[in-house]
Amino acid sequence: MTNFPRYISNRIQNTASQSFSATVTKIGIGSIALGLMVMIIAFGILFGFKDAIRQKLFSITPHIRVAKFSANESYEEYPITKQTDLYRHYKNIPDIKHLQVSAQKAGILKTPEEMLGVVMKGISRDFDTTNFHSVMIAGKPIQFNDTTYSKDILISKIIADKLKLNVGDNAIIYFLNAPDRPRKLNVSGIYETGLEEFDKTLIIGDLGLIQK
Q1: How do strand 115-123 and strand 103-110 relate by DSSP bridges?
Q2: CA dist., res. 159 & res. 190, Å (int)
């Protein structure tokens, strides 16, 4: 029989409405339709979460990070010079939308009642705030000045809750390589990415402070 699939489909379609086969057929079709609907919804939710996580991740980290190679697993990185062809001419490369500099240093953030180990990410005026605005939940960005480094910092909601800090409060940071030189900082804003890897330890401050 050359058209066996069509023969079977016709037999199923022409089955009497009161027969047991008709009931089974309707249940089978309904089950398949329900299964497909659940799969489509599940994939929609999955891709939605994936896109949301990507946006939150890139609000605080770059797509590509250029750093000096080192076997050191410390939070701190070896500095690299900006006097490179990449930095001077990146605007001529169509695939690069933006380039910014940053540095990290580990320390301890202290209030009169609490203290917490943190990693400060130093940024400058070239920091792209377009994506970061989406994760800011209180306060305002760092206010840079031309005479010295800014004392403003941005902290996560997790850190703010642990240290009982609000926008406008002060905190003292001790850098691990200079514990005898504490710096008094001001909480300028609070962010929340929902990514614990960053929210548990990362604060954002002026690159000039880390360089100093």
Answers
A1: antiparallel
A2: 9
Task: Name the pairing type of β-strands 115-123 and 202-206.
Answer: parallel
Instruction: Dump pLDDT digits (tens) for 156-189.
Output: 999 999 999 999 999 999 988 777 789 999 999 9
Neighbours of 47 (CB within 10 A): 10
User: In the predicted model, is pLDDT for residue 65 greater than 90?
Assistant: no
Q: Which sequence spans correspond to the domains of the chain?
A: 4-60, 85-211
The phi, psi pair for 99, rounded to 5°, reads: -135, 135
Instruction: Report phi then psi at 19, rounded to 5.
Output: -80, 160
Is 105 within 8 Å of 122 (Cβ atoms)?
A: yes
In whole angstroms, what separates CA 109 from the centre of its chain? 22
Q: How much is the average pLDDT of 183-197?
A: 90
pLDDT value at 53 more than 80: no
Q: How many other β-carbons are positioned within 10 Å of the β-carbon of residue 155?
A: 29
Q: How far apart are CA 104 and CA 67, in angstroms?
A: 11
Tell which residue, 184, 204, 183, has the closest CA to residue 192: 204
Extract the tokens encoding 98.
Answer: 């933006």
User: Rounded CA gap, 198 and 192, in Å?
Assistant: 9
Question: What is the C-alpha separation between 207 and 124, in angstroms, rounded?
Answer: 6
Between 55 and 170, where is the model more confident?
Answer: 170
Task: Check residue 191 and give its pLDDT.
Answer: 92
Separation CA 203–CA 142 (nearest Å) = 12
